[in-house]
Amino acid sequence: MNRLLQWVGLSAAPRRSLPSTQRKPIPPALRLVLGLVVLVCIGTLLLMLPISGANRSLAFNEALFTATSALSVTGLTIISPVNDLSLFGQIVLLLLIQIGGVGFMVTAVIVLRFLGRRISLTDRLTLTDSLGLLAPGAIVHLTRNVLATVLTIEGIGALLLYLHWRGDARLTEGQAAFFALFHAVSAFCNAGFDLFNGIPGYDGGIPRDAFSLLIIGILLFVGGLGIPVVADLLAYRRGRHFSLHTRITLIVIFFLIVSGTVGLYFAESRSEVGVLSGKPTYERLLLAFFQAVASRSSGIVGIATFEDLTPASQVLLMTLMFVGSPPASMGGGITTGTFAVLTISLWSFVRGLPAAQFGGRSLAVGTVRKASAVLTISLFVVLLASWLILMTHPDATLDQAAFEVISAFATCGLSLGFTSEMNIFGQLIIVAMMFWGRLGALTIVIALAQQQGKPQPLVYPEEQLLIG
Amino acid sequence: MKPFASWLRRPAHPSSERPIPPAVRLVLGLALLVAVGTFLLMLPIAGATEPLSFDEALFTATSALTVTGLATIIPGADLSLFGQIVLLVLIQIGGVGFMVVTVVILRVLGRKISLQDRLTLTDSLGLPVPGAIVKLTRNVLATVLTLEGAGALLLYLHWRSDERLSEGQAAFFGLFHAVSAFCNAGFDLFTGLPGYPEGIPRDNLSLILLGLLIFIGGLGIPVIADLLAYRRRHHFSLHTRITLGVSAFLLFCGTLGFFLAEGRLIGALNEESLGRRLLTAWFASTAARTAGFAAIPDLNDLTGASQVLMMTLMFIGCPPASMGGGITTGTFAILSISFWSFARGLPAAQFGGRSFAVGTVRKAAAVLTVALFLVLLATWLILMTHDVPIHVVTFEVISAFATCGLTLGLTNELNFFGQLIIILVMFWGRLGALTIVIALAQQQGKPQSLVYPEEQILIG
User: Fold this and answer.
1) B389–A311: do the CB atoms touch at under 8 Å?
2) How far is CA B212 from CA A453, B6, B182, B291, in A?
3) Is A391 in Cβ contact with B365 (below 8 Å)?
4) Which of B305, B340, B348 is facing A390, going by the closest CB pair?
5) How far apart are the CA of B59 and the nearest CA of chain A, in angstroms?
6) What are the tens digits of pLDDT across the range A127-177?
7) Which of A336, A359, A324, A343 is nearest to A437 (CA)?
8) What pLDDT, in 10s, does the model give residues B139-160?
9) Residue A20: is its pLDDT beyond 50?
10) How far from chain centre, in Å, is Cα B434?
11) In this structure, are residues A198 and A168 in contact, taking their beta carbons and an 8 Å threshold?
12) Which of residues 108-147 of B touch A (CB under 8 A)?
């Protein structure tokens, strides 16, 4: 293998020469946007092939929606993957999810390496951005580690699910194996696509026995931690020290999961209104816990009758989705980092401290500026999209529209069932939201707005403005 | 007057006493006023047929003092004339701000205004530096009363020809609604009158007069002062420029949005003429920013799109130190500017040849964060205890937080727990998103003397 790579590398060596220095490199944000666009186009084409459809080939809007949903690891869908896609189509879907999950920059690096091409500095910078590293380091080495970790975890998950599901009489041996692989990837990448919906034996979607929920829940959780945190956890034995990022992320996730579990448990245990009332306590706790873990960004539904959730739980889920997962993880949303910085900054401000402080460290001013920018643009985008959907769907209620839009923005994929009823305009908006959400709230704006010229040489005088 | 005043003057505070910090003073002052208002409204002579119960009086007093306008009673039917006058006075006090009232009373009594009072007033009037507070207070009061007087007169002249009102009623209604509109309170006396099944009269002139009063009241004291001083200085402060810009932008977007959404076949204004549609959309857009006068009889008829728009407008609200609430246009402007500057890669938030202090951006982010927290928590609590759809509750909570007073009809159906939550949210909203948190959290000790090392964390 090594020699093969070397050989390809040698043969590609002349290409290392430098015509590219003459060209202006495309800035990282724009590369990310364009890269995802290209992938979406390829995915759409593949899904539109006649062999991808089960009985008929997919229409353009169906293929576009599915490809975007898979590449942005969202899981919202207007088709039923198991009925409308052939085995080939399902494998394409699986690949798209995997590529969307590990990030297409990682994929690009692997492909380039494989072809023996050099990884340019701009590529490295882009990858640094998209992996959420604070400094460009040994990128290629890291990429290999990331990929190895991802595949190992997914492999273990798939194996366990296979061993568990093969005993299920409703599935054949082959189905059990493929389903285990598919759902392990879908869960680890926080995508939320499932193949059970639509199979005659499974009325309520995925199997909800305790073991399945546990395995899927763990996969979701680990996938939702994000690459930097997983790397930090793995390096603990050597370093004996967690970075501030890891500490804050773990605390925020713990807090969100506990509040989510408690909130869902109380809201849904209320007699007569709650969907879990009447079930035994431990099952209620398990389902509430699973849903709290899942809703932070994967669309896998632990509660069978999801549309019947009480409004209080819907608000809670919308909040959890909107906050989402850590940066550079499989999930979306404004990210736990933004949430943490805003909260810390708020508390430091009202305490009258000179800077945002936490755990004996101060946060840079730029971090606070970025966090407030993320929150602002997220609110803008979500409100605008909800408004547009409400303007074009006379029958839609506000709650439904807001839920689907936040779900798409957070690349979560939970749905109150409204997505499948949308017209083409609404579908396009959801596609745009998933796209925007997967890139991160600011990436598109930065790609559009970043000044190409030299940095501004002057500083304007300060003036006060009254607020709040 | 003079000798009497100087006789009343007492020695200043003993300096050993620790002064109460401004934020706590504002909270305590408003709490005290609410208590007094509740007591007055519970008097037997305040009720029309029977005295108000405690929760009704508390809700009404809070709603009036926070210039919100949400009501669990019908002021036109449940309050006697005395009660209505009390309500009017509460709205007026809530509108000009109780610190201004305090200063006026202290002045009349001839007491000295302490530095603490001056600082608190500086905060609540939204002045960047403590200046000639007493003179300013007088000017504020004079301006407010003049504008309200003019509005009341015009409304009276317009409404006296209405056959459904007696001469006296027309005069009192003119005054009441001028004050209610200028203070952006949104209480009205028409609802409940037999002749007015749809609430306030919605003929063109009434809408225009009320709309103008709301708009001017919603500009805020610093902006009005700046506008009045324009002839002398020929220069607007950055605050005035940004406030006017944002207000115009929001007004335009709101009008356009309502016009488009409600002009559709399913819209509430589908059958109206073009001019009426525009006027109603304009009024709805003006009133949504915090006044609480409904542009159409039942807001439940609005389409979902308009309700989202209305919630957004309410949430943003009015400029700081105005009659309105919300996160304020200043916060909105800073967040937008900061966001854009960040996306452009600029070193600081910049607009119109000025950059903003880092502290301003920190404060704006803090305001937005705490506002979202509060609205979500209150919504969740009400949903846990009531069986109603999300958007109705969200609408009501945002309306209370922004001291706006528009309603989808939920307030009447709330149980006592729900009412208490709305009361708290109104209270919180009128003080400003951060005041209560600051009052609770501010460190009293000496400032922290060390600086922690910086560390990066990943976000968004």
Assistant:
1) yes
2) 46, 42, 8, 11
3) no
4) B305
5) 24
6) 666 665 655 566 677 777 778 888 898 999 999 999 998 887 778 888 889
7) A324
8) 778 888 898 999 999 999 999 8
9) no
10) 15
11) no
12) 126, 128
